[in-house]
Amino acid sequence: MKMYDLLKSSVQNIKEYKPGKSIDEIVALYDVSPDSVIKLGSNENILGPSPKAIDALHSHSKTINIYPSVDAYELVCALSEYTNFPKDNIVASGPGMDGLIDNLMRLIVSKDDEVIIPIPTFIYYEISAFSNDAKPIFVERNSDFSINVDAILNAETSKTKIVFLCSPNNPSGELISEKDARKIIESVNCFVFIDEAYIEFAESNLSDLVKDYDNLIIGRTFSKVFGLASLRIGYGIMPAWLKKEYMKVSPPFSISGMGINAAVSALSDTEHVVESVELSKRGREYLKNNILFKVYESMANFVMVDTTPLNSKEVSEALLKRGIIVRDCSSIRGAGDFLIRITIGTDLQNERVVDELNKIYKEIINLKEI
Ligand SMILES: *Cc1c(COP(=O)(O)O)cnc(C)c1O
Question: Residue 263: which of 38, 94, 133 has the closest Cα?
Fold first, then answer.
């Protein structure tokens, strides 16, 4: 018997996760110096972590022999204040929001249950679905990448357990309207998960809807605007009855004491958050107005670019050779072969992106004229 056959058959469907490339990889692959490489492929906070969070890590380092609080109590208290929700509605999760998604899957879906995923979107929903023996039902978006509410509602069956929505959507950047969200939440007989990983970069959020429905869960993370991607911390806002059940399956101590301390401090550093958001807002306008390819409107700290007539693989490789790491979306289900995603950088980095992308664009145009 082959040992491979012992694995769950559902796992055979999982495509290997391809993250954005690291600086080390680029330096090894191309002849560029590490100092000149800019990493705009993973939507991290370009300003780095909050200095307050770094201090918190240092001050906690002498007690890492002690288990943290079992459910990250201190962080849940801080999040309660930050979100204006009672503690009964909030869970802190590790590793990251991915951990929240996994725990919900383990709590909610059984073998052959279905989850609805409008594509293209964040890949982890389907990875978690396959690993939990659920069947992802992929629904196409409208041509502007907004969700197709009717298609989502039509995809619901008696086996549907969760609809995954992402607002702003990764990789396309648009928000889900309150009207569309309410329509879906009210029409379905299952849970709706709204991923708000990038919500601080947008003007509005949908978290208050948790007060109106008993089937809505909001997912958030410390990996993006809060600049703590390496610490792997997320959180969820959900109905109190669901939190009680969730805590039964959530592994205890899933966030380290250092993580809890750093996250509490990052939440308190409003100045750092405001500066990060301002930088992204300014940057996405600049990129939209100056890149010669089509740039989609974004409410997040990245923009999606249509590289037609070149395919995204060519363009992202051309940028890599020039020391700029972006995300080629062709490995994202439903994204096709002509989209790249670029994290908003510092003003200087954005200028370099515009400069290099436009050189690539002009080369094509010139070639065409010959
Ligand atoms: C980055 C990201 C997450 C979560 O990341 P974690 O690091 O696991 O907290 C979730 N959803 C989307 C859309 C993301 O881009």
Answer: 94
Pairing status of strand 191-195 against strand 216-221: parallel
3-state percent helix, strand, coil for the chain, nearest multiple of 5:
45, 15, 40
Range in 19-28, 60-69, 89-98, 99-108 with the lowest mean pLDDT: 19-28
- Cβ atoms of 299 and 175 within 8 Å: the answer is yes
Residue 277 near ligand 1, beta carbon < 6 Å = no
Q: Give how far the C-alpha of residue 45 lies from the chain's centroid of Cα atoms, to the nearest Å.
A: 13
What is the distance between the alpha carbons of residues 85 and 76, in angstroms, rounded to a whole number? 10
Strand order in the sheet with 294-295: 294-295, 302-306, 339-343, 327-328
User: Which contacts of 202-206 are long-range, i.e. CB under 8 A and separated by 24 or more positions?
Assistant: 202/167, 202/168, 202/175, 202/299, 202/300, 203/299, 204/175, 204/178, 206/167, 206/176, 206/178, 206/181
pLDDT in tens, 276-320: 999 999 999 999 999 999 999 999 999 999 999 999 999 999 999
Local structure of 90: helix, strand or coil:
strand
pLDDT, tens digit, 9 for 90 and up, residues 229-265: 999 999 999 999 999 999 999 999 999 999 999 999 9
- Tokens for 102, please give them: 């996994």
CA of 266 to the centre of ligand 1 (A): 17
Distance in Å, CA 6 to ligand 1 centroid: 31
Residue 11's pLDDT is 84
The residue to mutate among 42, 79, 97, 194, having the most atoms of ligand 1 within 8 angstroms of its beta carbon, is: 97
Q: Which atom of ligand 1 is nearest to the CA of 232?
A: 7
The Cα 66–Cα 274 span in angstroms is: 34
Q: Looking at residues 3-12, what average pLDDT do you find?
A: 85
